[in-house]
Amino acid sequence: MLFPEHHPIQVLFYEFCRSGIATSSSLVFPSFPPCLTWPLAAPSRPHRNRSPVANLGLPPPRPRVPRSPAAGTATRVTALVECAGERPIQEHAGAEEKASKMSSTVPKSSNIFWHDCPVGKADRQKLLKQKGCVVWITGLSGSGKSTLACTLGRELHTRGKLGYVLDGDNLRHGLNKDLGFKAEDRAENIRRVGEVAKLFADAGLVCIASLISPYRTDREACRALLSDGSFVEVFLNMSLELCEARDPKGLYKLARAGKIKGFTGIDDPYEAPLNCEIEIKEVNGVCPSPCDMAGQVVTYLEEKGFLDE
């Protein structure tokens, strides 16, 4: 069945084809009988001075003008849309970096409320027969932080006390794998670990956090999270020369060769604690044994009542 040339359906299909959606010379619906075919050629005798769409009383179609990114712009990806930016590349980078930093420091909603549970910290501590705290081990790379943390964890386990180690490198494999080593990333890394450590302490565990944590302000912010005096800062005061000589991971060698930028102690500062609870120093240019260092920490925890039943 062939519709008249100016039939409304014929005109609509003509505009459908002209828009670029259809490209064949005719449009056939297989589910209909073969005779139902609409030619897609333009009408040969349109109404004088009026377009086919105007014959239906519809507004004229908007012209389709292809757009391409202008020079000096970048393609960026937002939530679900990829689009061409219309600002300089440098401005895009700055805006995205700012958004990235703010995303983890600004609450997503103000309509949130703290919900208390009937079982509190005191109940958990009574069950575990110990008091929750955070042992924060800080120092240069190669000073023995991870070794001390693991040795301390084993010593606590031997005594029947429950502890958990939060190692800086291990956390960068999961919780903090989206962070680098720029100043703002380091700050966010410590903030996250501080919040997690606070939860472990609230659960009644001895949380052992082992991180370089080079900036004093960041460590003090973590201390402020535990206002009950349960933050124990342990400073492994080993000289740069000793740490670089040990270099268990080969990082100092890479930093000296310029292959690692912003390495603490080489081209990025380490701010030593001013009022730490425990300071462990090298003896005659040698780092104390792991058991000796762990013994100092356990003695302190016992004296302060953290391991009391």
Plain-language structure description:
The protein has 309 residues and is an alpha/beta fold. 35% of the residues lie in helices and 15% in strands. The chain contains ten helices and nine strands. The strands form three sheets. A five-stranded parallel β-sheet has the order 6-7-5-8-9, with helices on both faces. A hairpin with an 8-residue loop joins strand 1 (26-28) and strand 2 (37-39). Helix 4 packs across helix 10. The radius of gyration is 34 Å and the shape is flat. 25% of the residues are buried. The model is unreliable at 22-44, 46-50, 68-96 and 98-104 (pLDDT under 50).
Labels describing this entry:
single chain, 309 residues, alpha/beta, five-stranded parallel β-sheet, 9 strands, flat
Topology:
Layout: H1 8-18, E1 26-28, E2 37-39, E3 73-77, E4 82-88, H2 89-103, H3 121-128, E5 133-138, H4 145-158, E6 163-167, H5 168-171, H6 183-202, E7 206-210, H7 216-225, E8 231-237, H8 240-246, H9 251-256, E9 278-281, H10 290-303
Parallel strand pairs: 5-7, 5-8, 6-7, 8-9
Antiparallel strand pairs: 1-2, 3-4
Gist of the model:
Helix content is 35%, strand content 15%.
* Structural class determined from secondary elements: alpha/beta
- Helix-residue proportion: 25-40%
Number of strands: 9
Oligomer: single chain
The strand order across the widest sheet is 6-7-5-8-9
Measured distance between first and last alpha carbons:
94 Å
User: What coarse outline follows from CA principal-axis ratios?
Assistant: flat
